[in-house]
Amino acid sequence: MKMKQFAVIGLGRFGSSLAKELVSQGLEVLGIDRDEETVDEMADVLTHAIVADSTEEETLRSIGIRNFDCAIVAIGDDIQASIMTAILLKDLGVRMVVAKALTELHGKVLERLGVDRVIYPERDMGIRVAHQLVNPNLLDYIELSKEYTIVELSVPGKLNGVTLKELDPRAKYGCSVVAINKKSGVIIAPAATDVINERDVMVIIGTNKQIESFEDELVGS
Ligand code: ATP
């Protein structure tokens, strides 16, 4: 079942950005922050915004927090408040609790408390930007496991007009092109005869090593 009602607790830079994006996707968002000024700034943007301390059980109960499909704890600096809020949300029976962690240890504690998803926005964004700086063709990637990754690579000019048969990443590097995103539309499971053009986006699956060798080929002359 698709989640519709979200509570975002802590409307700092991360929480407010997340909350706004959920609203722009047509979802209902309650924003909670203990700082009145912060809540005032978000009041017009979110479905509801209230001033409250999320470490107070009675407050969370009276908001009816357990009726929300998902609660996101976007408090970072105040680790004690983050942990106490996460415990209360789980105890009160919120179905899905997501929490932001600042450090690995903070994340481990949240996991032990039963938080359904722990996120590390600063760490993950740092890694992502580093990958993109090293390989200018890399648009995005998803780590499927420690070994396997899906990447989106933009096609460099030197490969304009090449067929997948000519490129042959499976035989040369062991990785596969699972889709090509062209201006004219997306080709899923492309055939050997499909042609790639400059600035098309190739979606590739493989081991990290296979993908690295393929990326080197794209960057190299
Ligand atoms: P960001 O990097 O997203 O700006 P941060 O990691 O610096 O955030 P904090 O400054 O600790 O995180 O918290 C973000 C927001 O959470 C702040 O607006 C703060 O007022 C709010 N907040 C902190 N503790 C509580 C609490 N117990 N109840 C409600 N809101 C809280």
List its salient traits.
221 residues; Rossmann fold; Alpha-Beta Plaits; 2 domains; five-stranded antiparallel β-sheet; elongated
Task: Tell me the name of the CATH class of the largest domain.
Answer: Alpha Beta
What proportion strand?
25-35%
Order of helices and strands: EHEHEHEHEHEHEEEHHEEEEH
- Separate helix tally: 9
In round numbers, the mean pLDDT is: 93
Distance between the termini: 49 Å
CATH topology of the largest domain: Rossmann fold
The low-confidence runs, each spanning 5 or more residues with pLDDT under 50, are none
GO molecular function, one term: monoatomic cation transmembrane transporter activity
InterPro entries: NAD(P)-bd_dom_sf (IPR036291), RCK_C (IPR006037), RCK_C_sf (IPR036721), RCK_N (IPR003148), Trk_Ktr_HKT_K-transport (IPR050721)
GO biological process, one term: potassium ion transport
Pfam families: TrkA_C, TrkA_N
In short:
By secondary structure, the protein is an alpha/beta fold.
How would you describe the overall organization of this protein?
By secondary structure, this protein is α/β, with parallel strands linked by helices. The protein has 2 domains: 5-119, NAD(P)-binding Rossmann-like Domain (Rossmann fold), CATH 3.40.50; 124-219, Regulator of K+ conductance, C-terminal domain (Alpha-Beta Plaits), CATH 3.30.70.1450. Helices cover 38% and strands 28% of the residues. The protein has 9 helices and 13 strands. It has a 6-stranded parallel sheet, sandwiched between helices. It has a 5-stranded antiparallel sheet with strand order 7-8-13-10-11. A two-stranded antiparallel sheet has the order 9-12. β4, α4 (79-91) and β5 form a beta-alpha-beta unit. The relative contact order is 0.10. Bound molecules: adenosine-5'-triphosphate (ATP). Adenosine-5'-triphosphate (ATP) binds at residues 9-15, 32-35, 38, 53-55, 74-78, 81. Residues 3-119 form the RCK N-terminal domain. GO terms for molecular function: monoatomic cation transmembrane transporter activity. This is TrkA family potassium uptake protein. InterPro entries: NAD(P)-bd_dom_sf (IPR036291), RCK_C (IPR006037), RCK_C_sf (IPR036721), RCK_N (IPR003148), Trk_Ktr_HKT_K-transport (IPR050721). It holds the Pfam family TrkA_N.
